[in-house]
Amino acid sequence: MPEMPEVQGLVDFLGGRVTGLEITRATVAAIAALKTYDPPVQALEGTVVSSVARHGKFIDIATGIPANGTDAGPHLVFHLAKAGWLRWYDQVSTTLIRPGKTPIALRVALGDGSGFDLTEAGTKKSLAVYVVRDPADVPGIARLGPDPLGEGFTRTTLAELLAGRRTQIKGVLRDQSVIAGVGNAYSDEILHVAKMSPYALAATLSDEEVDRLYAAMVETLTDAVAEASGKPPADLKDAKRRGMRVHGRRGETCPVCGDTVRSVFFADNSLEYCPTCQTGGKILADRRLSRLLK
């Protein structure tokens, strides 16, 4: 699943290529992916891209109406979910998309002939596309917590978010209404750097543990965003995998202590951790995971 660093990489890539270009065509191939109907998706056609921004894991392409150069147009907002991705083309295909016969959910063509597809692999479809007048009209954006790399996100901010939460810290980090942009992979990485068990209760963290967690969050995400910067979409997934210390590395050697990285499995995913670095050598049991994301 793309998380903040990869989404920011996509935003930077798109911002440098689509800003100032007219959207000539917007075609929905998977109707279930389109979550709004007013404005219609056709309202994007004829507008000019004015900016590209990130809200948590959402990408927001803002447009303007070229008739007078001042009126704001609709926003194309999308969330790639677990198996979605963006494919960029310097020359986008003009071939008619056959709904249900392709992984393409949305195709956007631009005035210089370039464009992109939003695609989704697998049978479980979660990719979401919105055409709205204001990004705040997207329910997922309206519910977002603060961005951990935002200027106002301090150690005090984090401490206040954790206070009173009798919830395991792994679940807190993944909760978009608490902290925006962190998902399963980077929560594993942050907790490994912080030397903290994913099962630690947020409300019971000491001041020193909050210090470590804040530093680990800022360091891990800042480094990952820098690594993603400047990379085309086709390279972002591999860059993410190469940068992981524990996530997705079950059975491999911890780069810090040399212990074996372990996994805990649950319905659709897993978490990875180092027993020596994070749990005092204890192997976590899967049976506890049912309470992880409550």
Q: Topology of this protein?
A:
Layout: H1 4-18, E1 23-28, E2 48-55, E3 58-64, E4 72-79, E5 84-89, E6 104-110, E7 115-120, E8 128-132, H2 139-142, H3 155-162, H4 169-174, H5 184-193, H6 207-228, H7 233-243, E9 262-265, E10 270-273, H8 275-278
Antiparallel strand pairs: 1-6, 2-3, 3-4, 4-8, 5-7, 6-7, 9-10
Helix pairs in contact: 1-6, 1-7, 5-6
Can you give me a brief rundown of this structure?
By secondary structure, the chain is α+β, with helices and mostly antiparallel strands. The chain contains eight helices and ten strands.
Structure description:
With 294 residues, the chain is an alpha+beta fold. Helices cover 27% and strands 21% of the residues. The protein contains 8 helices and 10 strands. Strands 1-6-7-5 form a 4-stranded antiparallel sheet, with no helix packed on it. A 4-stranded antiparallel sheet has the order 2-3-4-8, with helices on one face. The chain has a two-stranded antiparallel sheet with strand order 9-10. Helix 1 (4-18) packs antiparallel against helix 7 (233-243). The longest helix has 22 residues, at 207-228. The two termini are 20 Å apart.
